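# step 3/5: fold
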Amino acid sequence: MVGTLIVATLLGASQLPPQEPLFHKLFPQPSGANALEYYVAAGDMAAQANDARPTKADADRQGTSVIELDRRVLANVDTANLLSLIKRGNSLPLTVPAGQDRYVIARRVKCAPLVLARWANVLFADGNSAKATDILLTLGEMAQVFYKSSTGLAIWPATIAQACDDHAFDSNLGALSLKDCDAILRRTPIPDTSFVEAAWAAGVEETRKEFDGSPDKMNAGYGTAFTPKDFDTFGKEWKRIAEDGTASLHALMRRPEAEWLPKMDSLSWDSLGGDSSLDDIMIGPNIYVEIAIRYRTRARLLRLAAYITKRKLEYAQPRSILDIPKEYAFDPATNDYFVYRRITPAFFVIHSKQTAWSQPIYLSFFQA
């Protein structure tokens, strides 16, 4: 019955010409208890609108704005149902059906947050900051579901979080109310690090099963060209290196966060005794660490921006990063304070500091 409701919502949700739904292929008998069912249904619903995303060139040709063109595209999508599917999925655990192409699933799922972030932009332009903020925070919570799923797909929530942050919040924070700022601070926790090892372990287990199978299956799924002998040799070598990667990742995750960036390259496949061709089979543990750092830093920057906006609305704009409580102003990943710069009277930039191991991560925002 629950699965029927998901399908009914999906099929009645859009007036745009539908793409071929992925939902029915993945879930011939949906349970209603798997977050991915709702996310895939939402991705199917949003796929056509995602492909129809207008550009500035489109807007210039028609003498209007991207926001106005988006408003026309999104009028053909049941955005309320789309958001409802994501919220329902956020309340459930996530599992990936065995034997399915994870990258196909990822491409379809991310259509929903990309379209919802565009809807948030339209709502900000219309002055409905409360609804826009709720949408974007819902997408941040969706990213958390992926992080906690331990499916070996840590790249998914990074994509989704970027869709949430980069497409809407960056240039709309000046439109927030005090309640919006409080909602951001309440609903944007800094993700813990337990997901890093869990996601890595799940990815290793999935890849181990591939090497316990046949070279033909591996070649078909990964575009490799193993002979049976090479497949056996390479598989044994990969398992040995993966075990070293697990031990190295476990050790690093127990060090202070400021040590992650300097030591991240020691977790690449090359440093572990393999070579970069292993990335074709599975991304190395260093990429899992990089994703964790970027996602946690973006969450901290969003919280910092909300605090700055809240302070201005309450009484006065902070003059410098040192006027801001350390819980918001300090970046454990670089062991230094974030940079807070006023570019113009209405435009501010906050970012992490550049290090010998990384470029800054930026968040820019306008304030009226």
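# step 4/5: annotate
The chain has 17 helices and five strands.
# step 5/5: archive (pending)
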